[in-house]
Amino acid sequence: MSPRRAVALRGGEQSLREHLIAAAERLIARRGAGGLTVRDIAREAQVADGVLYNHFADKEELLAYALHAHVRSAEAALTEAPSEAGSGTVEANLRAYLSRALALHAAILPAFAGVVTQPKVLARLAGLPNPMAGGHGLRTELAGYVRGEQRLGRVAGDASAEAVAALVVGVCHDLVLGHLLDPSRPAPEPSPHLIDDLVRTLLRGILPSAP
Known about the structure:
Strand content: under 5%
Largest sheet: none
Number of strands: 0
Helix content: 55-70%
Number of helices: 9
């Protein structure tokens, strides 16, 4: 172990690979992934530049793992956990899901602003498990919730859980993609009225018909 490596890991239980991912994640959280160099990451990790290539095929692989970790950290920082089927009301639960998904997308948006021009990083990230909802992804998580409500009779049996989830996630993407493609535009801040309108529109399509 080199002296620089010993300093970087002294007193910790991380492997050097985990240490490098954590260092890159900190940089991404502070300044985004765009423009990060191997030297930037090595300095943050307090290791020699070449150490990165002992644990990753290239910088793009390390950035993909760091972005993956950043999304997981952003999701863990959200205070409200997803609602379970049968709790509260369907309307309140859908509003909470949508608000949470929008907050998560807004939180990770700055980190991805510089990645659209780095297809190798995106390809590496696509090869990793979904970082959201415990590896399932927001769409699968929400579709599972809707199916649970269907089994309880609180959502119409002929409603498409996948379509509901796709609509909710699609709204998130619509609100953040404009800023992602044009960082000069203001970050998305959906109003409560918009969320209410979206939930109301969803409910008209999935609530059971009155007898």
